[in-house]
Amino acid sequence: MEAVKKLIPSFGCREGQAIIRDYGQDYYSNDILTLAKYYSDNGADELFIHDLSQTDEDHERTIGIIKEVAREIDPPIITGGRIKRLEDVKKYLYAGAKAVFLDASVQENVDLIKEAADRFGSEKIYVYLPDVSYLDRVAEYSQLGASKMILDESHMEDRDLYRLSQMPYEFLAACDDDVPGTITSYLKVPSISGVILTVPGEKEGNCMNMKQELKARGIPVSTFESAVPWKKFKLNSDGLIPVVVQDYKTLEVLMVAYMNEEAYQKTLQTGRMTYYSRSRCKLWVKGETSGHFQYVKSLRLDCDNDTILAKVAQVGAACHTGAKSCFFQILAEKEYRSLNPLKVFEDVYGVIQDRKIHPKEGSYTNYLFDKGIDKILKKLGEECTEIVIAAKNPNPEEVKYEMADFLYHMMVLMAQRGISWEEITEELANR
Questions:
Q1: What is the pLDDT of residue 343?
Q2: What are phi and psi of 165, to 5 degrees?
Q3: What integer pLDDT is reported at residue 154 of this predicted model?
Q4: Where exactly are the structural domains of the chain?
């Protein structure tokens, strides 16, 4: 199977602002998270964030922004730009970046390639090449441990593309030109696995639209393709199929709607949930008037081929009443315990956070917070030791009890240091 080519929107980050380059002109956006989510929801395969900070203070702020973006979006992040020592590479990776680039024009960065690759793995270390003249040293960078090269050459000529096609290394090409023909010429080069879009405005940032154009030009890109043809769906008497819509993270059921074939095909093409309105007898893109779009994460067909389950990233509320879900009216209910591990962890963590914000007299949790980090760490160490001791005993119940104790104290530490379960699970997923 031919490997798909990647579209990677990019922006610089300085003084808390996103800087989008457009043919020498810089444009600014204060709302970096919204910008990153837009690219993520609209088909970006990865996101490139260039740290343009000029002070250590701004560098730390940018690290915090990268961490926030990594927590909120699904595509992997490539970043770099202000690296003076190995610790800076570690900070980017610990903030949630998939890979960090080292600038080949800075000798100190070149000197760090091998050490960084040995420490964090070659797959996490890229080298940034300011222009084609640096291609002469690509073999050296690869031998030092870099897994991928980022070539920032705005307008490559045919001879440059031919040279790249003969090189046994993987490249990402920065592309200032948003014309599909130019991007196509880059992506047809076998060694170029993706393009970094350095001018991603609304048109270019909507990678789903660009992917459809590239697909028509014969470029293999990641798009939604239906594994089952429409003709095999079992439709109701109106020629429609019901769609149950879930939040892809929480699995909360948000709404039920209907699709005809046109709505289904448009959903696949755009990545935005599109339905057929039975009352208005026409297509409607969810969110086109409210802004509360639903971005496709997965579409599944049930065993009878007569119902679609859509998992989506929901912007805002799904219900026209303003409620998150249309299913907010309780008809009958019985108390029950949820054994969903993440939900249990989040519920317990929520109680711990509430104790921190609203102290309760006599609360053991508040006792730990009052005593501070050293006491929390001491208890965590004690509980860890008790797990080891319990594991040597034949009774597994004791191990479960001690592990539960350890997890509770670990969550107190998480609350103390401002770490969420979402960050923990994302870090595990990244591994």
A1: 78
A2: -65, -20
A3: 67
A4: 6-216, 230-314, 341-430
**How many Cα atoms sit within 13 Å of 300 on the Cβ side?**
11
* Residue ranges of the chain with per-residue pLDDT less than 70: 1, 22-25, 154, 177-178, 200-205, 336-339, 430-431
230-314 in CATH: which number? 3.10.20.810
Q: How far apart are CA 236 and CA 258, in angstroms?
A: 10
Give the Cα separation of 211 and 197 in Å (integer): 13
Q: What topology does CATH give the domain 6-216? A: TIM Barrel (3.20.20)
Where b means 16+ CB within 10 Å and e means fewer, 362-401 reads: eeebbebbeeeeeebeebbeebeebeeebeeeeeeebbee
Tokens of residue 327, six digits: 């299913």
Q: What is the pLDDT of residue 101?
A: 98
289 backbone dihedrals φ, ψ, rounded to 5°: -105, -35
The CA distance from 51 to 65, in Å, is 10
CATH class of 341-430: mainly alpha
3-state helix, strand, coil in the chain (%, to 5): 45, 20, 35
Q: What is the pLDDT of residues 41-76, one digit of tens each?
A: 999 999 999 999 999 999 999 999 999 999 889 999
Q: Residue 53 and residue 64: Cα distance in Å, rounded? A: 12
CA-based nearest residue to 137, from 116, 117, 107: 107
Q: Model pTM?
A: 0.82
